[in-house]
Amino acid sequence: VLLATVKGDVHDIGKNIVGVVLGCNNYDVLDLGVMVPLDKILATALEEKVDVIGLSGLITPSLDEMVYVAKEMERRQMTLPLLIGGATTSKTHTSVKIEPEYSGPVIHVLDASRCVPVVSTLLSKDKEQRSFYLQQIRDDYERIRVQRQDRLSAKTLLSLEEARKNAFRIDWQSYLPPVPKQPGIHCFDQVPLKELVDLIDWTPFFQTWQMAGKYPAILSDPVVGPEAVKLYDDARKLLDKVVRESWLTARAVTGLFLAASTSTDDLHVWKGKPGEDPYVLHHLRQQVKKAPGQPNLCLTDYIAPVGSGISDWVGAFAVTAGIGLEEHVRAFEMDHDDYHAILLKALADRLAEALAEWLHREIRTKRWGYAPDERLANESLIAEKYRGIRPAPGYPACPEHSEKQTLWQLLDVENATGMKLTENFAMYPAASVSGWYFSHPMSKYFPVSTIGDDQVADYALRKGMTSEQAKRWLAPLLEH
Fold this sequence. Notes:
Number of helices: 17
Distance between the termini: 32 Å
Number of strands: 13
Strand content: 5-15%
């Protein structure tokens, strides 16, 4: 079984777990690693005479890469089964976008626990059983395509003009935006790891290992509890060693800047004096028709408009806890200790998220300082009981990944932290987080889902992209 994280993507924890599970079930696994180009995947598959190809990815542009691989496999008249997995993948996306491009078997594998029965059926010598299974998959995917089309037909989209008229309205004359106590850019070269340990949200850690349940309740769960306790104990032991011996470096850069919103859903951000050429952040607006009284939201709604005479501010940040990770992962792998290699990657991810939490608290209470008296326990931080939000490019409120490019320029992220962007705007090291800060007390998270062709055309114009480029980056939001 050949496994690869597709071009432009650096996330491989789930793929690593799949590889271990398959290996424990006597399958030979050839893992090509991360950011693997299409040609290398297919050339290696032919050279090594593999039986199955498995593609993985986390960021949404990876979905397009998987479509390209399927198209190329069809062009080359290949017949190998193609398995699709990763956090942003789904059975719906596989059935709608990938399976129609390839006449060979295409199967979405939800998690590592499903990979062994899928592969064993695909490679079964019982041709009748295999044929029956593949026909079931094809029928299921056809049913999903029909249902999706029915849902889309029932969904009403407003025009972009109508959606903008139904924006969230803030009474700016009765609200004074808080002025940062320390505006500008701030770098944190080495945040002590011990300050992050108590800010870890452990629930996603267990989800990484495909254990369902919230921490700490999962530790006493009648089904997965005993295994969860063992995993947690192993993680805490390794985490203590990581902190004690400084295996990882936690680094961050953040900035607070004057900003104003425009009528076209852009934010103008001034790194220097107002009136100089601004950095422009391009945002997207919800277009699905809402119930009466419900606005069609865009992040720009939370910032005072250009020409209002009100000085407003926006923040930006980029953090990583992945510096130093690779050498320690490699040491575990050289020792054939895949379990601790994966455990360390998962802990680095948790530390990066904890660092994002630590930095946001630092901003709210000190640098921006609009909540100087905030005293929240970790449970309340996880539940986002604080004022303000920190949406991340690539996530529901601002789902277009290429906006990270502007964030990188604004904060000079690479020089400040060593973090890089791949060609598909994944962050490297993988244990990294970036995003924006909004302080308005009414700001909240929301999803931008389906958008219309008019917003695609408008976005392309604002970004200076061709229509085809815009459609590529906005693919997960398009109806067709």
